[in-house]
């Protein structure tokens, strides 16, 4: 195997190991009450179909593990246009479904604060910002001290990294997540 082939195998293995390690770490926090891992994967739906975008041929995998009263979430993205390598994008769990061509259908960020207006932070929402590598892959891990309720949800990828107030620009793509 040539050097680039070995590098590709290593990177794929590295992504798989990162996902496995995060799930194992989540279960190890409170092994007596470790929950079921929810796995979602597929092609990303285009939320901005009027123009070509970096996620038009990308796919993603999300693992959500509830353990006790906490959750660990791992996002893996592959097939991103390498023209955006080294760029960071915001990604969040949203409260509504992933509908191709209809970004507003995903609703607002899923927020656990329980107050109106909601408290916006990486402790009350699941933020999964990621940086695309030279091969068009990315990964992110988030841990929160709560478990999201079941429903038809989505992980939305935004144009910009997440600001302190939770904004991240236009919605580019999404992955359906329903449990």
The largest sheet is: 4 strands, antiparallel
The geometry reads as: globular
Structural class: alpha+beta
- List the uncertain runs: 1-13, 22-33
Element order: H for helix, E for strand: HEEEEEEEEEE
Number of domains: 1
SS strand fraction:
25-35%
Strand order, largest beta sheet:
1-3-4-8
CATH architecture grouping: Sandwich
What is the highest CATH level, the class? Answer: Mainly Beta
The CATH topology comes to: Immunoglobulin-like
- Count, helices: 1
Distance between the termini: 41 Å
Helix percent band: 10-25%
The counted number of beta strands is 10
CATH 4th-level superfamily = Superoxide dismutase, copper/zinc binding domain
Mean pLDDT: 87
Provide the gyration radius in Å.
16 Å
Question: If you had to describe this structure to a student in words, what would you say it looks like?
Answer:
15% of the residues lie in helices and 34% in strands. It is built from 1 helix and 10 strands, in the order αββββββββββ. The strands form 3 sheets. A 4-stranded antiparallel β-sheet has the order 1-3-4-8, covered by helices on one side. The radius of gyration is 16 Å and the shape is globular. The N terminus is likely disordered. With 179 residues, the chain is α+β, with helices and mostly antiparallel strands. The protein has one domain: Immunoglobulin-like, CATH 2.60.40.200.
Topology:
Blueprint: H1 3-29, E1 34-43, E2 45-46, E3 59-67, E4 70-78, E5 88-89, E6 91-94, E7 130-131, E8 138-144, E9 152-158, E10 171-178
Antiparallel strand pairs: 1-3, 2-10, 3-4, 4-8, 5-7, 6-9, 9-10
């Amino acid at each position: 195997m040539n050097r680039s082939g070995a590098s590709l195998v290593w990177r794929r293995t590295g992504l798989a190991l990162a996902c496995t390690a995060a799930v194992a770490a989540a279960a190890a926090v409170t092994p007596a009450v470790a929950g079921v891992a929810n796995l979602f994967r597929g092609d990303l739906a285009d939320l901005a179909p009027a123009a070509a975008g970096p996620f038009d041929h990308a796919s993603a995998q999300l693992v959500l593990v509830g353990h006790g009263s906490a959750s660990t979430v791992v996002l893996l993205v592959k097939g991103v246009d390498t023209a955006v390598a080294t760029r960071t994008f915001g990604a969040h769990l949203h409260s509504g479904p992933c509908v191709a061509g209809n970004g507003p259908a995903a609703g607002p960020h899923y927020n656990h604060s329980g107050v109106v207006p909601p408290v916006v932070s990486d402790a009350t929402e699941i933020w999964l910002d990621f940086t695309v590598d030279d091969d068009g892959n990315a990964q992110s891990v988030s841990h929160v001290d709560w478990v999201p309720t079941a429903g038809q949800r989505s992980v939305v990828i935004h144009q910009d990294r997440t600001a302190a107030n939770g904004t991240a620009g236009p919605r580019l793509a999404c992955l359906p997540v329903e449990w």
